[in-house]
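Try this one yourself first.
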């Protein structure tokens, strides 16, 4: 309509278009603008958070419930279980695990959470002997699963709900569950902790010495698009402990697990904006050529 109209009418349509686009953008970002009018946030608990053992080096997570505020995981580049809380982008498995953990906070130990920063009401039921108050709303969980954990006798479950029910009966760090495959059983060994040696947005490498066949659970969110290798050979990933990632190891020895995220569907869509611009340019060129002939 705008391109096919000449003279004063074109200017009127252009003005209407600008008004509508500006109004749409203002309404869409109104909340962001309103936040910008307020004072700059001043976090006051960051030093206390960074002083917690195992947080800066990534061995453990925190779970901030509005005490440190303003998403400390993102700001301080630490691992925060509350990163997606109340976020529409949060994964369904995370939502189910978080809801179960609010009712039964001991489950947080299975999520590699060592410290809970509780600034909400009602507060979580953090009780002794499995948790210890540190003062100022900080709590330490005494039983915590390692970020990389070998389990000789993981239990098989069918879904997240069953996983949560089963995990309530298991001490964090002493056992776990896996879905999608029957794990090795009757293995005479104890749980062993490994370590993450490389970590990035789309890449993770973990090393662990396992005493026998079993399951290695990595306390990183399970997502089917991840591709993994075990000692350089492709391997399958399974949901472990409800929302995390599990790998079955067939024998004793050194296990090097590497995960990469490279979903083909993401890369297939990259040319679409360019193709759309080409199509728009072609249409405008054709329209201009038609008008010049007329």
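Now uncover the answer:
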């Amino acid at each position: 309509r705008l391109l096919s109209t000449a003279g004063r009418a074109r200017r009127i349509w252009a003005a209407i278009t600008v008004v509508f686009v500006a109004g749409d953008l203002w309404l869409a970002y109104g909340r962001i603008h309103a936040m910008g009018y307020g004072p700059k946030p001043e976090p006051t608990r960051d030093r206390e958070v960074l002083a917690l053992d195992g947080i800066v080096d990534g061995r453990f997570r925190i779970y901030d419930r509005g005490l440190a505020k303003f998403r400390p995981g993102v700001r301080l580049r630490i691992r925060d279980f509350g990163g997606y809380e109340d976020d529409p982008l949060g994964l369904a498995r995370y939502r189910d695990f978080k809801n179960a953990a609010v009712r039964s906070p001991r489950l947080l130990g299975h999520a590699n959470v060592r410290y809970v920063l509780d600034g909400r009401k009602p507060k979580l039921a953090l009780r002794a002997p499995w948790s210890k108050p540190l003062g100022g709303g900080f709590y330490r969980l005494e039983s915590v699963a390692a970020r990389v954990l070998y389990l000789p006798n993981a239990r098989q479950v069918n879904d997240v709900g069953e996983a949560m029910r089963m995990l309530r009966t298991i001490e964090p760090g002493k056992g776990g569950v896996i879905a999608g495959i029957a794990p090795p059983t009757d293995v005479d060994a104890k749980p062993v902790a490994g370590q993450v040696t490389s970590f990035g947005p789309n890449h993770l490498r973990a090393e662990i010495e396992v005493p026998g066949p079993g399951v290695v659970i990595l306390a990183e969110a399970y997502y089917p698009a991840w591709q993994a290798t075990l000692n350089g050979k492709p391997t399958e990933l399974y949901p472990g402990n409800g929302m995390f990632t599990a790998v079955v190891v067939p024998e004793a020895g050194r296990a090097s697990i590497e995960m990469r995220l490279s979903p083909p569907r993401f890369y297939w869509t990259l040319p679409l904006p360019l193709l759309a611009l080409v199509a728009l340019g072609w249409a405008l060129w054709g329209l201009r050529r038609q008008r010049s002939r007329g």
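Discussion: Residues 148-261 form a domain with the Maltose phosphorylase, domain 3 fold (CATH 2.60.420). The longest helix spans residues 7-28.
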